[in-house]
Design brief:
Layout: H1 2-21, E1 40-43, H2 57-61, E2 66-71, H3 76-92, E3 98-104, H4 110-121, E4 127-131, E5 147-153, E6 156-163, H5 168-182
Parallel strand pairs: 2-3, 3-4
Antiparallel strand pairs: 1-4, 2-5, 5-6
Amino acid sequence: MMIRKIVASLAVLACVGLVLAGEVKSGPQVGQGVGAFHPHNVFNAESSELCGKENCIVCQYGSKPVALVFSRSTGKPVAELIKKLDATVAKAGQEKMGAAVIFLSSEDNIKDTVATMQKELGNKNVSLAVDGPKGPEAYKVSPDADVTVIIYNKKKVLANHSFDKFDAESVEKVAGSISKHLN
């Protein structure tokens, strides 16, 4: 009888371990603040003069609600997220909400890749920028996170979604969270 309880307890712990294994802690957490950093703007949705320049997107958006995405991927799920963000910001209006995707990479051609992505998507409301592979140091973006989404308002984090593998299901989870927190 005692052995069964021990085996059952170990089975429960193993299941809990499997659930936790997919979670990644990355970026500022709920209740924390977001600070300035200066990525290279490939496309700045609010100001064409800032395209091709370093600019603090957090400073630019000020105290309005923002979806800030750090991505190590330029794949289809990230493109789908950009489309959803673009539609959400268009509906709310750029004066009431901001969104930016910061691609984290050390690839020499990342700026060209992101510029091509921008042209293909026809995105009008989401800024696209690039930064080094670690991202802004103060943000502590995990190297294990494929995508980290920070939803904040008045520079305070309302939600954080970090994914070790970003897929279509992840896109829907983020879209739902944005609707909940920013609309």
